[in-house]
Amino acid sequence: MIWIDIMYAIRQSIIYIMNLIMLNALTGSCVFICFKLLEKLLEKRGLIKMSVRLLRFVILSFLIPIVFVSLIYAYDDNVIFAQDDPLPYVFGILLLIWAVGWGKALIHSIQIHKRLKYLINTACMCEKEVVDTKEIWRKKLKIRQKIEVKYSYTIATPIICRVLKPVILLPARDYSREELDVIFVHELMHCKHKDILWKQLCAFARIVFWWNPLIQRFVYVVDSWNESYCDYAVTQVLKDKKQYFTTVCRLGIQPFQKGAYLCAALYEDKNQLKTRIYRIKAMQDTNKKAAAQISVVMILLLVSFGSVVLITQGYHRIYMSTIMMLGDIQQEIYLKEGGAETRDIIMNLKEYDHIRWNKKLPVVKMKENIKKGNYNAFFQKLKSQNRMESNWIYLKKGEIVSFNLQNMQDETLNKRDTDFISGIMDVNGRERYVMASSQILHDFEIQKKGRYKFFIENRYKSKIKIFVDFTWEK
Q1: pLDDT, tens digit (0-9, with 9 covering 90-100), for 318-348
Q2: β-pairing verdict for 376-382 and 263-265
Q3: How many Å apart are CA 339 and CA 435, to the nearest integer?
Q4: Residue 115 Rama label (left phi>0; alpha psi -120 to 50; beta)
Q5: Interaxial angle between packed helices 48-63 and 270-285, expressed in degrees from 0 to 180 and rounded to the nearest 10
Q6: Are 446 and 373 within 8 A, CB to CB?
Q7: Which regions in the chain score pLDDT beneath 50?
Q8: Closest C-alpha among 89, 121, 107, 66 to residue 15
Q9: How far is CA 300 from CA 220, 290, 312, in A?
Q10: pLDDT of residue 416
Q11: Cα-based distances in Å from 23 to 18, 58, 85
Q12: Distance between CA atoms of 335 and 393, rounded to whole angstroms?
């Protein structure tokens, strides 16, 4: 039925989206915390350029779904991201709450973009002398992009904004040649370093992870190190560090307030400026060695890799434990209501297809490929709380698959008959299954052509050995 497939796709999409958001936030936060643990060491050694590159790695860890993809491909065990009740409803509520906050953050970001666009549209053209100075420095810094420069009456400090068509906005006033040199070298360095692009990526992360308490601090740290890297690059060109920072202080008496994470300003924060000066001084006083840089990078990469591995394994265990706990609860309810048949006649087992067993298990493959027309009989051991699945088999409507399964372990024969389960599963994950105490003899009639898997589940608390035999007829 189409509506069943649609509901299945919706439920799965809800779980995927919410898990993707949570896992990316968790991964990015862990990598950012690792960076913060090394930040003082980076400052002390004056490793400004290296710090900026590491922070860009942190930005990507927020945005690239490393753990999500790893869980899907590394744990292809029918457990991770399963849509067992009530998980779709829980994740659905979380997704709804997230969507409300995301909508508010998006509207706020759009408003900032509009204000920035208004600043650009209402700005005035500059004198030829100012434009010529900008062009001289653009060519010296080997920047190929065409960059406009305009006067604005509504800002207090020079800024550069937009990624594709950058614009430098200057407060409307008279400038000396020395001041213009500082302004244009600083703002053009932001353009050369692609800082506006990375600020936009931070803005995107800020919208998506609005609920993450670390995201605000993370954006501030990115801005701070970008400015420090820009200061370092400028002082390599202008040489006189004291004169440069004196000019910055003189030009940026009032900090910039309008959407600072969408553009780069010459001066944004008094405390940040102190930090920038301290970092440049550390850069000057430190004898930088390649070994120190490599050591810091390796430490962060190793710790970050370890964090990602732990997150992947831990999240899988938590998800699997949740699924199995929910399965135990629903199975007890199901048995109390008399839903399962006990000690049924082996040749007349009741078939279930209206309830999908919620207690998912890790999956192992059958050691032999099942083929129509072949004699498919073999023995295979199956660990406790594991599920065995065959290869995909294409079956036509009306075909009958005969299951002959024998549990060979005597110590499990008197256990619950719901602990030994077998059935067929289609490509959408829908199952039809039967249960028996020690032996399953049952015929499954194929109701719709397509690909199917055969499965056997060992829900006992001990390993079992199973005799497996599959045959079919038209």
Answers
A1: 877 776 676 666 656 655 655 444 333 344 5
A2: unpaired
A3: 12
A4: alpha
A5: 130
A6: no
A7: 257-261, 285-287, 339-347, 356-358, 412-414
A8: 89
A9: 20, 16, 18
A10: 57
A11: 9, 14, 21
A12: 32
Give backbone dihedrals phi and psi of 150, rounded to 5 degrees, phi first: -140, 160
Which two structure tokens, joined as six digits, stand for 362? 């890790």
CA distance 80 to 362: 9
b/e for 161-198, b at 16 or more Cβ within 10 A? bbeeebbbbbbeeebeeebbbbbbbbbbbbbebebbeb
Residues 18 and 26: their CA atoms lie apart, in Å, by: 12
Look at the alpha carbons of 220, 186, 154, 207 in this order and tell me if their dihedral is positive or negative.
negative
240-241-245 Cα angle (round to 5): 120
Cross-strand bridge partners of residue 402: 443, 471
Amino acid making up residue 114 = K
Q: Tell which residue, 182, 179, 183, 276, has the closest CA to residue 238.
A: 182
- Cβ atoms within 10 Å of 140's Cβ, excluding its own: 12
Closest CA to 218 of 24, 366, 387: 24
What the block records as the tokens of 253 is 């008496």
Q: Report the interhelical angle of 241-251 vs 215-238 (nearest 10°).
A: 130
The one-letter code for the residue type at 172 is: A
pLDDT of residue 259: 47
The predicted structure's pLDDT at residue 289: 56
Amino acid identity at 370: I
CA atoms within 13 A on the CB side of 47: 23
pTM above 0.90, yes or no: no
Q: Which amino acid is it at 91?
A: F
Q: Which amino acid, 57?
A: F
- Return d(Cα 298, Cα 304) in angstroms, integer: 10
State the Cα–Cα distance between residues 29 and 328, nearest whole angstrom: 34
SS3 of 173-186: CCCCHHHHHHHHHH
| Cα separation, 327 vs 363, whole angstroms | 16
Strand-strand pairing, 159-161 and 167-171: antiparallel
Cβ pair 181, 285 in contact under 8 A: no
